[in-house]
Amino acid sequence: MTSLNSRCWLILAAGLTLTLPAHAYDWSEMLKGVLKAPASQPAATGVDALSSSEISAGLKEALTQGVDTAVAQLGAKDGFFANSALKIPLPPSLQKAEKTMRMFGMGAQADELVLSMNRAAEAAVPEAKPLLLGAVKDMTLEDARGILTGGKTSATDFFRKKTEATLTERFGPIVKETTDKVGLAQQYNQFAGLAAQFNLVDKKQANVEQYVTQQTLDRLYTLIGEKEAAIRANPLQAGSDLLKQVFGAVMNR
User: Fold this and answer.
1) In Å, how far are 85, 108, 166, 182 from 105, measured between CA atoms?
2) Measured between alpha carbons, how far is 137 from 131 in angstroms, rounded to an integer?
3) How does pLDDT run across 182-193, given as a tens digit for each residue?
4) CA atoms within 13 A of residue 147's CA, in its CB half-sphere
5) What are the pLDDT digits (tens) for 122-156?
6) Do 171 and 213 contact (CB within 8 A), yes or no?
7) What share of the chain has pLDDT > 70, as a percent?
8) Largest CA distance in the chain
9) H helices present in 180-207, as ranges
10) Which pLDDT does position 158 carry in this prediction?
11) Which of 60, 133, 141, 224 is the most exposed place for a label (fewest CB within 10 A)?
12) For residues 175 and 209, is the Cβ–Cβ distance under 8 A?
């Protein structure tokens, strides 16, 4: 009797299984499929979590801020001359002869030349602002990502590549107008120009205006890079939410 009952229950269970709708037939297999499904990809973090437009806008804001600050600082009276880290010294060839010059009573002329060189630099720097801001405006997404994830000099390198040739042309006449008023500058140009022909003086220092122009640009680009580096180092104090987001992502990449 027991055997008969067992047989009946098996037949009943088989019948119920065959009558179930197709979508309900095997939950265990369905669960196995879910468990074996590949895990979802982890959320992107750091720079990878930023859109191209966010990277571009954030970096442009940072570089614009750096340009504004650097030009305002260097373009003011004593922006170069009163800052020991930025002050433009005598050209190397004159530095070697400076002690002798002072011994022969030419110390005042040397001081006058140093002052005029730095005043010329201060006068020239504001001319750079429109060109530098233009370079920022025309920055490509590739430029932006390269600077954002680049090394310490990435901003300096970008500006130098985009603007150095044009700024050299613009700065030259401004510097020349100021330094030509100093007798020692004219004497330096005569002797340095001749020495440069024999490779005794670097051609970039063949005259005072070339020397001052190069020194001015070096300091301007470097200062912009330093302003950017300050934002990179402390994005929470950078100002806008966009800068905090973009440079905060770089720190956490």
Assistant:
1) 28, 7, 39, 16
2) 10
3) 988 988 888 778
4) 30
5) 999 999 999 999 999 999 989 988 888 888 889 99
6) yes
7) 72
8) 135
9) 183-197
10) 94
11) 141
12) yes
